[in-house]
Amino acid sequence: MPIYAYRCEECGFAKDVLQKISDAPLSDCPTCGKSTFKKQVTAAGFQLKGSGWYATDFRGGASACPAAPAETAAPACAACPSAEAA
């Protein structure tokens, strides 16, 4: 269930409410009792956890960069390490 942010336009009271999408929006402020309790537009909150993604989005297997020819000093692609660094 999503969490919606509400704020009273009259007294300024703010509250986060856990509601179903199909539930009717709240309208009465729990503090002042007036019907000026409005749903706020907020950014979606999400959190990325873990160590991240691999460059190719695959774990293991073939290398992301093709092998550069021995006579070429420049790397095959921008993500590949240069031959001089090895």
Written account of the structure:
With 86 residues, this protein is mostly beta strands. Helix content is 0%, strand content 16%. It has no helices and 3 strands. It has a 3-stranded antiparallel β-sheet with strand order 2-1-3, with no helix packed on it. The mean pLDDT is 76.
How confident is the prediction overall: mean pLDDT? 76
Work out the helicity level: under 10%
Secondary structure tally: strands: 3
Shape, principal axes of CA atoms: elongated
Rounded to an integer, what's the Rg over CA atoms?
27 Å
How many separate helices? 0
**Straight-line N-to-C gap:** 52 Å
- Give me the side-by-side strand order of the main sheet: 2-1-3
Structural class: mainly beta
Low-pLDDT ranges: none
Strand content: 15-25%
Order of helices and strands: EEE
Taking the sheet with the most strands, its summary is: 3 strands, antiparallel
Write the layout of secondary structure elements.
Elements: E1 3-8, E2 14-18, E3 37-39
Antiparallel strand pairs: 1-2, 1-3
